[in-house]
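User: Sequence recovery, please. Input:
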């Protein structure tokens, strides 16, 4: 049965707590709070399962993906050592995929930084302020334009009223002139037939200056003038008076028509500008409302948006790791030392992915890689089918471990992942190993589906290793290096927040939230919120519950 490892971390914390309690029991003083530090290092996630060691003398090798061979670095009969490069496949397409995933990761990181920086809240706030200022300016401009148009319409209306009054007076003058001419028609005719010069009204006086008669006080069109001091009167004809009056009426009519047109134009312009101003104000008002909504949404959605960006960043990081693993798997390495006994493929040919498994090893319940289904001597131009061996190593002095993983754990395992193997009978041994293959189909067991994974020890020369020994394989499924990290034992969750207790003044814990990245078995990655070197306090629940007990030296029985 597989299980996730974190036992060493908790075991270490438990040992530390026990030591603290022992010291407390001896001294009688309250225990100092256990401390850890924020540091830099690797964060790894593993899945574990146990099985039985089986000695092997032959090993089949292959690529986890189908592809075209570009290099075969060894030949049949060559002796190889663990970790030696044996062959390479074309990785162009996989390199492009890796570049795309790295670009997606950079984009996801930038989106998270922008969301955490609060730029959207500040930007929407500035946009709202600017929209309000523009709305006020537009309202002011519209009001001023409406005032000017109203004034222009008022002046045009007053001008039209004045011009109509002038037209009325012109009509009155025309009627008066026509009436006067009708009454004086005969008198005007006889005066026109008299060809004698006008008689002087009085004798001229040479000693006096010439006099000019005063203008007539009535409404006649007589013209007075003097000659050598004697006044004469000349009367304008009725036809001329009527013509003059009618000309004045025509001019007044023309002026009224122009004033009416000017008033219509002023009113039309006023209506147009008022309607346009209303539209402008409504448009700017809608912009203000939209900016208010955006600003409110930015404030309300910011926490959720940050969480979404963090999830997208984690997905992008996982995609980069998968793409990088695919690129790494285009190179085939020797998992153990041995001699190349068969190679099924030449440069330029396509080989299939190696997914084969082998029968049960004699004398144990573990399975071993296929030792008989080898295409040595077969046509090397076929490219191999799924499950066939690309290369075979002989004269191997090593061990392998075939362990069943639950389907949830098996989905996280891939070929060439690094493994640490511990043997129950040899506590001080930690043997490095490599995932060789994972079965494509599962086997039902006790109501669950398990997938067998073949794990090969890189070095099998330890004389203490024996067939049939029980061993535990810790497969590293996820790993980030050189990152800021905190021990997972010091981390706790409160709602949606991830919190650690930072040592404060007088050694008091200060709950401090931080942004967590990859969560490993022993450590948790720190993205922000903590700095390297800070001291952390472990939860003291266990210490508090134990301190009241009666066990230990000098305690009651």
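Assistant: Recovered sequence (557 residues):
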């Amino acid at each position: 049965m597989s299980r996730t490892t974190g036992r060493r971390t908790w075991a270490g914390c438990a040992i530390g707590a026990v030591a603290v309690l022992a010291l407390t029991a001896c001294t009688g003083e309250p225990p100092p709070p256990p401390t850890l530090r924020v540091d830099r290092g690797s964060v790894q996630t593993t899945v574990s399962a146990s099985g039985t060691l089986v000695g092997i003398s032959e090993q089949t090798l292959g690529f986890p993906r189908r592809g075209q061979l570009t290099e075969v670095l060894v030949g049949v009969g060559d002796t190889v050592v663990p970790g030696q490069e044996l062959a390479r496949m074309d990785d162009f397409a996989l390199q492009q995929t890796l570049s795309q995933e790295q670009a997606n990761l950079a984009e996801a990181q930038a989106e998270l930084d922008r969301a955490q920086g609060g730029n959207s809240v500040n930007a929407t706030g500035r946009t709202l302020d600017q929209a309000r200022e523009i709305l006020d300016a537009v309202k002011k401009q519209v009001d001023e334009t409406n005032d000017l148009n109203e004034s222009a319409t008022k002046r045009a209306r007053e001008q039209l009223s004045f011009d109509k009054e002038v037209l009325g007076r012109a009509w009155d003058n025309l009627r008066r002139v026509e009436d006067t001419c009708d009454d004086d028609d005969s008198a005007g005719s006889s005066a026109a037939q008299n060809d004698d010069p006008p008689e002087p009204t009085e004798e001229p006086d040479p000693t006096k200056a010439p006099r000019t008669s005063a203008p007539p006080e009535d409404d006649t069109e007589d013209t007075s003038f003097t000659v050598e001091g004697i006044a004469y009167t000349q009367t304008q004809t009725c036809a001329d008076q009527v013509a003059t009056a009618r000309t004045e009426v025509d001019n007044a009519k023309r002026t009224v028509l122009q004033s009416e047109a000017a008033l219509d134009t002023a009113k039309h312009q006023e209506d147009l500008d008022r309607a346009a101003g209303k539209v402008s104000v409504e448009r700017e008002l809608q912009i203000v409302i939209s900016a208010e909504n955006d600003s409110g949404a930015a404030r309300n959605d910011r926490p959720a948006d940050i969480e979404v960006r963090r999830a997208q960043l984690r997905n992008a990081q996982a995609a980069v790791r998968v793409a990088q693993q695919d690129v790494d798997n285009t190179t085939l390495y020797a998992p153990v030392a041995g001699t190349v006994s068969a190679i099924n493929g030449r440069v330029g040919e396509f080989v299939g992915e190696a997914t084969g498994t082998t029968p049960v090893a004699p004398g144990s319940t573990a399975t071993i890689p296929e030792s008989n289904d080898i295409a040595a001597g077969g046509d090397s131009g076929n490219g191999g089918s799924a499950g066939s061996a690309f290369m075979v190593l002989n004269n191997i002095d090593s061990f392998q471990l075939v362990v069943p993983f639950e389907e949830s754990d098996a989905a996280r395992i891939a070929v060439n992942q690094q493994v640490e193997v511990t043997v129950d009978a040899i506590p001080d041994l930690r043997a490095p190993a490599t995932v060789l293959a994972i079965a494509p189909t599962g086997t039902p067991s006790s109501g669950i589906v398990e997938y067998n994974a073949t794990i090969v020890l890189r070095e099998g020369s330890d004389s203490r290793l024996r067939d049939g020994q029980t061993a535990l394989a810790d497969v590293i499924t996820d790993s980030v290096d050189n990152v800021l990290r905190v021990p997972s034992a010091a981390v706790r969750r409160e709602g949606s927040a991830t919190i650690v207790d930072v040592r404060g003044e007088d050694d008091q814990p200060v709950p401090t939230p931080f942004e967590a990245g990859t969560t490993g078995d022993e450590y948790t990655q720190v993205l922000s919120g903590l700095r390297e070197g800070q001291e952390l306090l472990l939860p003291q629940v266990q210490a508090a519950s134990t301190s009241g007990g009666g066990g230990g030296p000098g305690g009651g029985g």
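The mean pLDDT is 78.
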